[in-house]
Write a structure and sequence with these properties.
The protein has 2 domains: about 70 residues; about 100 residues, Thrombin, subunit H (Beta Barrel), CATH 2.40.10. It has 1 helix and 13 strands. Helix content is about 5%, strand content about 45%. A hairpin with a 2-residue loop joins β3 and β4.
């Protein structure tokens, strides 16, 4: 098991074999023996599978070696920006917030952890859309919509950095603002970019 990531009671990791949603896994992580119920399993490489599984208890703080998702390294800006991509459900989304490290998307259908998305983001007052790639870290249903936490695969990309800097410094008001099946690309969490 590799590439541990934790959010609340969910553990995301890569394993060499395929499992199915509902399967119970007995795993040992560090000194802890955990019984996990598989929520999703997706191929992410040659004989590698990305698994998201639920624990009956919160895992944050229990597994020091695991990256804790949802911890902020950069401050979020609560901007609602238009995002377009043929890889998104309905080809579009809105950001809920954005930071130097990533963004949260409001989407109409579920995205899979590990999925790579090429996005075109409209920044207010910025000439032209900014192209970037993100990796989906988590996705959860909220009402009849989904919220996905994504990280930029190349947060140092010049146009993206410039647009984020412009957004921070201008203080402009926030932007307001069934499709054919989309193709998905995946990379193991923590290994993309």
């Amino acid at each position: 098991m590799s590439q541990l990531q934790v959010q609340d009671d969910l553990l995301t990791f890569c394993i060499p074999g395929e499992v199915r949603p509902g399967d119970i896994l007995n795993v040992k992580v560090e000194q802890h023996k955990l019984q996990l119920e598989v929520e999703s399993c997706r191929p992410v490489g040659e004989e590698q599978y990305l698994v998201t599984a639920r624990s009956p208890m919160r895992l944050e703080g229990l597994l020091p070696s695991a990256e804790v998702l949802g911890t902020r390294r950069q401050p979020r800006m609560g901007e609602r920006l238009r995002v377009m991509s043929p890889e998104l459900p309905d080809y579009q989304a809105l950001t809920l917030d954005i930071s130097d490290g990533g963004l949260r998307l409001d989407v109409s259908d579920q995205l899979q952890p590990g999925e790579l998305l090429a996005l075109s983001v409209s920044f207010p007052g910025y000439d032209g859309d900014v192209q970037c790639e993100v990796q989906v870290l988590w996705c959860r249903q909220e009402g009849n919509r989904y919220v996905a936490g994504c990280r930029f695969t190349d947060p140092g990309e010049h146009r993206l950095r410039a647009a984020l800097h412009s957004l921070r410094s201008t203080g402009l008001p926030s932007a307001q603002g069934h499709a054919p099946r989309r193709q998905s690309r995946f990379a193991p969490l923590g290994l993309a970019g």
